[in-house]
Structure prediction request, 325 residues.
Amino acid sequence: MANVPVKERVKVSQNWRLGRCREGILLKWRCSQMPWMQLEGDSLYISQANFILAYQFRPDGASLNRRPLGVFAGHDEDVCHFVLANSHIISAGGDGKIGVHKIHSTFTVKYSAHEQEVNCVDCRGGIIVSGSRDRTAKVWPLASGRLGQCLHTIQTEDRVWSIAISPLLSSFVTGTACCGHFSPLRIWDLNSGQLMMHLGSDFPPGAGVLDVMYESPSTLLSCGYDTYVRYWDLRASVRKCVMEWEEPHDSTLYCLQTDGNHLLATGSSYYGVVRLWDRRQRACLHAFPLTSTPLSSPVYCLRFTTKHLYAALSYNLHVLDFQNP
Prediction:
């Protein structure tokens, strides 16, 4: 917000703190979806069935140009997850394949990666990591001449729901179902594929991790089926998280986002509830239910900027506008 007048910055900041916003719907679709979403510049990328569509924001940030900028296809089943990296879209599909699409050209490659659906994918520094229902995580090169050449296959003993590469590019973390292994969070060496450490020691069976993200090389956030967001600092302890926040209605947490400072946002499994948290406090600051009882939906993915929060549900893409409440 450096180019925004100070008075406007203060107003928007107070709106976030007080939960003042205007709700709107950016996109609708007829069939129930499990969409994933990414933001880059003035563009929004969102998966719908086996496509990924790119839209351009209008100047207000609270609406989209209706005609997509681009449509990226290639999967035979739904896109489960995707990331943006090095002018590429790296997508994970229910068909067990990984897709590599160049954003500004027609270049698209897909290759068989897993025996079952690929639930998650990440890409940094020219390396792709993927996790699957087939209980493996794999490491791949992004280099065009080596696409589809597996560097490491890791037996995780559990379905892999989430995955993230460390900012140092030396390791990656997997979030698993916590059924076949006692810890759903494990960190692996990116070069050798060997297990480096597991996080936590008192997870109940089935406490799968649905979203995980690095904030720095030594700090992570995770959330999932056991209704908690956990903050891990590898410098302090790998046995216990340093902070945790509990979803007050005992709902599974599908996704999380942070501003890298004090603000944390989570998406719950019932009634499309988005919650805002101040990480210096235990209690939730604000809750925004985006669906009613007949159309209850999880928040499958959420992203926010300094002025807007975007939440993808089964039938709609919602926006919370904190600039013009």
